[in-house]
Amino acid sequence: MSTQSSIEWTEITWNPVTGCSKVSEGCRFCYAERMATRLKAMGQKRYVNGFTVTLHADALEDPFKWKNPRVVFVNSMSDLFHENVSVDFIKKIFEIMARCPRHTFQILTKRSRRLAELSDSLPWPSNVWIGVSVENIRVIHRIHDLKKVVSAKVRFLSCEPLLGPLTRLPLDGINWVIVGGESGPKARPIDEKWVKDILTQCESKSVPFFFKQWGGVRKDLTGRLLDGRIYDQMPPRGPVQSQLQVMASL
Ligand code: SF4
């Protein structure tokens, strides 16, 4: 249950959990919900439950099948720390990640409180990156929860869809920031000033900055150039370079 990903900051998605529910403004036009609805209508067996949280034990071992090192986005179609994902299942996912050191796993959550609560009971191998979504100032508390995951090698922010200014990000202890505008038919506009302000904050703290996209109804037309350049910075990964790392260094 893996798919080559068109998401610019990863290579492949792995979805041992599908389905979710909305928690904040960033969820309003959730891409995963749209996809799950479509896949259910197409009769995909993984999505018979549509966007209801569903655990797929048979997908747990997928990472063992990928021989080459991969950058893997875990649960692009869900939120690993959703309240309906059992602690036991979360631990199984961490165990698999720990046993696959050749891959780099990226987990992104909006359930930062549950992440912080469970953090000490989870192993944090160096190939697991953990991030929180920060779409506007109302959810800035997620960063404080993220910082409680002291054992993670990489803690990152995904400011996407960026819905407002984030002028004073607490970046100490943060290793990576992704910024992007919303895309899709009802995309809410991003302001260039918000993006540049985050870039300035990252530069002043030497935090790698990744600008994913301007977004909009046709994201293929708006692209991802910021002042004429592509910002593709990422934290360093393990000893084996993945395809993405090689590309970023070219
Ligand atoms: S947390 Fe993520 S997957 Fe879940 S509803 Fe919100 S945007 Fe969608």
Gap between N and C termini, in Å? 30 Å
Query: Which stretches are poorly predicted, pLDDT < 50 over at least 5 residues?
Result: none
- Overall morphology: globular
User: How many domains in all?
Assistant: 1
SSE pattern, N- to C-terminal: EEEHEHEHEHEHEEHEHH
Strand content: 15-25%
List the bound ligands.
iron/sulfur cluster
- Please tally the helical runs, counting DSSP H or I stretches of 4 or more residues: 8
Helix content: 25-40%
- Biggest sheet statistics: 8 strands, mixed
Assembly state (oligomeric):
single chain
Number of strands: 10
Strand arrangement, largest sheet?
Answer: 1-2-5-6-7-8-9-10
Class from secondary-structure proportions: alpha/beta
Taking all Cα atoms into account, the compactness measure Rg is 17 Å
Report mean pLDDT, rounded to a whole number.
Answer: 94
Give a brief description.
The chain is of the alpha/beta class and 250 residues long. The chain is 26% helix and 17% strand. Strands 1-2-5-6-7-8-9-10 form an eight-stranded mixed β-sheet. A two-stranded antiparallel ribbon has the order 3-4.
Walk me through what this model shows.
It is a single chain. The protein has one domain. The relative contact order is 0.13. The protein is 26% helix and 17% strand. It has 8 helices and 10 strands. It is α/β, with parallel strands linked by helices and 250 residues long. Strand 1 (2-4) and strand 2 form a beta hairpin. The mean pLDDT is 94. It has an 8-stranded mixed β-sheet. The protein binds iron/sulfur cluster (SF4). Iron/sulfur cluster is lined by residues 20, 22-23, 26-27, 30, 32-33, 78-79, 110.
